[in-house]
Every structure is written in C-alpha cells, then in structure tokens.
Amino acid sequence: MDVFNVTADAEQFTCNAYLVTGERTVLVDAGSMPGVVDVVADHVDTLDAVVVTHQHSDHVDQLDAVCERFGPEVYAYAEHPQRTDALDDGDTVEMGDETFEVVYTPGHAADHISLVGETALFSGDVVVHNDGAFDNGSFGRTDLPGQSRERLIQSISQLLDRLPDSVTTMYAGHGDVFAADPDGDSVRDVVRRALLRAEERQPKYPDG
Fold first, then answer.
1. Which residues form the Metallo-beta-lactamase domain (predicted)?
2. How many structural domains are present in the chain?
C-alpha cells in the first residue's frame, strides 16, 4: 500500500488529501486545491472510492470535481449530495491493501470519523502530529460554533483505546505525516500526547 499526499503542493489553504493505492484505490478527503483531480490522475487511471473524514470546506470543496472526473463511491458519516455509502462507528472500509475500522471521533466536527488499520491511522483533524500550535502531538481546534473540547477529548481517548500497537504511520488532515521511530515516539505516543494537551483545557490558539 502506497500513500500520496495529492495536495502537498497547494498554494492555498487545504487539508492533506491522501491517495491510497493498492488493491483498492481510495482518496481520503478531496481537499480544496483546484486541480487536485489532475494530481490524482498523475498516479492512477481510476479511483474506486473517496472517504470523507468530515465535511469542513477544506476537506470537501473539490469533492464534486473528483466525482465528476472519476465517478467513485463516496463514503461519509453525514449526508452529502455525493455520498453513496453512509459510515458509522465500527464499520470497515477497504483501502489500498488494508481493512480500516471507522471510529466516530466528533468534537472538531460533529460528523468526524477516523480510520484505523493494521499499520496506518488516518486521523483527519482529531489528532495531528504538528500544526503550528503544538509539535509531536496536537488536536483539532474546538473554539468555533458547533465544536466541543469535551467531546474531542472523549474521541481521542476512544481512538487511543482502539489503536493497535502495529500502527506505525499516522496520516493527519494537516501538518506532516508521522512515522514511528523504533528509538523514539510511536503513533500511540503522539496520540497520547495530544490527549494530554487537550485535557489541559488551554486555548489552542490563544489569540484566535
């Protein structure tokens, strides 16, 4: 299974949109970068599915364009005009060469889900490695209407409970991909650090 960040060269604000290749080619989030369909097409001729971690604009603005170009199945927790398959906690999705469990992780967004496989975690915005607020373990913002720090803390805790030790890579919606270091942090360490920081209840963006 190979994973490519197809929005890595974006010049405007977007999420990281990840193309997962292998037995089943899947795009995790569509991003908001114009031309993302061309980057996807540079890697694959067909796209089997798109999985939406949540429907903030930086994650779905290009979803219509992706669907028009490739006609994939679309998996999402909440309703969307392009959704073909509803996701719920405990469901499984085949991506690349792995089976991923859906973990419902609201707080940053009411419809947020994360995807846990045997070797990889797609965490959306619930947990990120670095994002300008914290390094080596951060979490999605919760200061906007409809967001909840308390619910986010519950979500990160649940994610930690359902995260196998075999997961060595975390693909987050923002910031850098995290790969475990045998002599340093594991993915569990990063998620645990994010949980502890969220539990401190300090504003993530004090000036925002």
1. 14-174
2. 1
Compute the CA torsion angle 154, 189, 125, 112 (nearest 10 deg): -40
Phi, psi of 92 (to 5 degrees): -125, 150
What is the spatial distance between Cα 114 and Cα 172, in angstroms, rounded to a whole number? 9
Rounded mean pLDDT of 134-140?
Answer: 93
Q: How many residues does the chain have?
A: 208
> Are the C-beta atoms of 143 and 189 separated by less than 8 Å?
no
pTM: 0.96
Contact assessment for residue 142 and residue 205, using Cβ atoms and an 8 Å cutoff: no
Range of the domain at 85: 2-199
User: Is 8 contained in some domain?
Assistant: yes
Tokens of 89: 């906690």
CA-based max dimension of the chain: 46
The most confident of the ranges 1-5, 129-133, 180-184 is 1-5
Q: Is the pLDDT of residue 208 over 50?
A: no
